[in-house]
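Me: I'm a chemist; would you kindly supply a protein sequence with its structure tokens?

Assistant:
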Amino acid sequence: MAVVETERSGQILIVRMNRPERLNALNLEMRTRLAETWTEFRRNDDLEVAIFTGTGRGFCAGEDMRESLQRGAPGGQRPEIDDPFMSGALEKPVIAAVNGFAMGGGFMLVERTDLRVAVRGAVFEVSEAKRWLLGGYNHGHLANLPYPIAMEMALGFRFTAERFYEIGFLNRLVEPEELIPSAITMAEHLLTLPPASRVNTVHMMRQMRPIPSPEQQRLASSLREHGAKSDLMESRAAFAEKRAPNFKGWDNPEDRYRLPTLDRVKS
């Protein structure tokens, strides 16, 4: 069984993650196959729009915790080849068709798409605060969301598709049987546009998305190191073993009061 399946409909490519028994968690095999698929899509002049979806109950559960524990290192192992979807090199528009859970790295896949359709009841979560020493501080900022909602996202609260639709993170909210047809309808609209207009507009809109300043990114890098690194694997082990985690917090308890600041990380 292929971990990534593709289906063509004229100039539209449907990319479907296919590890339903693991809620389409991103192991190395899937990451590699996705990178290959996006590269092939980018280079194929007969394909203009992609629809990105999953099989089963999940769109994508993010990092494969089982694989991380086997490797003894947190975070998913990256493929050896470039992934133009993840790097931002892909010029063609991608529509997310979210069929279920979009958690952690799965949420980040949705975030990288240009248009988004989701089934009612789908669940989203920015999981970094649960797995690393710094929560997903930039996701709400990238989505132009108000501070308290961005804070809620960064701290790992879950969001329903209904709420994400209300705050403007999703374009369409549909019943399960309408998911792919609705995404295809959006793709067909894109295909009515002059090709240069479609590509140029998508490119321009992507350039206008807000990003943290260089100083804020340096502060984030410092904060990712500020705490007990043992908690990274403990969070994953507790998740895999379905138990409460036993976190240490800081190797030196006084570090709680020695937070890095913007002033200290400025070049």
